[in-house]
Design brief:
Elements lengths: L9 H15 L2 E5 L2 E4 H13 L3 H21 L4 H7 L4 H19 L4 H4 L10
Antiparallel strand pairs: 1-2
């Protein structure tokens, strides 16, 4: 019979509860558009730091997802990938392949617009 190690430390509970409430719910940081929470401020800061590389980061993670799905379908040598992606059907897998092409187009500054736009159409809005 095993017993769980339960810590009865109310100070630890109160400190982390107050920090969580301040971080997630209380609008403390003033911005140009008003007041926002520290969570919104930290997300905006991270997005500003990663802005030049965000397309490449998305491309890498979606490519890893596609590789994981293919490996899980082809072989059973990686039980973690088989357990995570082995039950993916063909339609979600094709959606994942399509999702791989979108950040690739964004990184290369090339897209499907020339193929979907007829040559006689007005493209002045581009």
């Amino acid at each position: 019979m095993t017993q769980k190690n339960i810590s009865h430390n109310p100070a630890k509970f109160l400190i982390f509860s107050i920090v969580g409430i301040l971080y997630f719910f209380v609008p403390l940081a003033p911005t140009a558009s008003g007041r926002s929470t520290w969570l919104v401020q930290s997300v905006n800061l991270i997005k500003a730091w990663l802005k030049p590389y965000l397309s490449y980061i998305v491309l890498i993670f979606v490519a890893l997802l596609v590789i994981g799905c293919i490996v899980a379908k082809v072989t059973d040598r990686f039980p973690l990938l088989t357990r995570m992606y082995g039950s993916v059907k063909i339609i979600p897998l094709s959606c994942i392949f399509w999702a791989l092409s979108l950040p690739r187009w964004s990184c290369s500054r090339w897209g499907p617009l020339p193929f979907w736009t007829p040559p006689w159409a007005e493209t002045a809005w581009l």
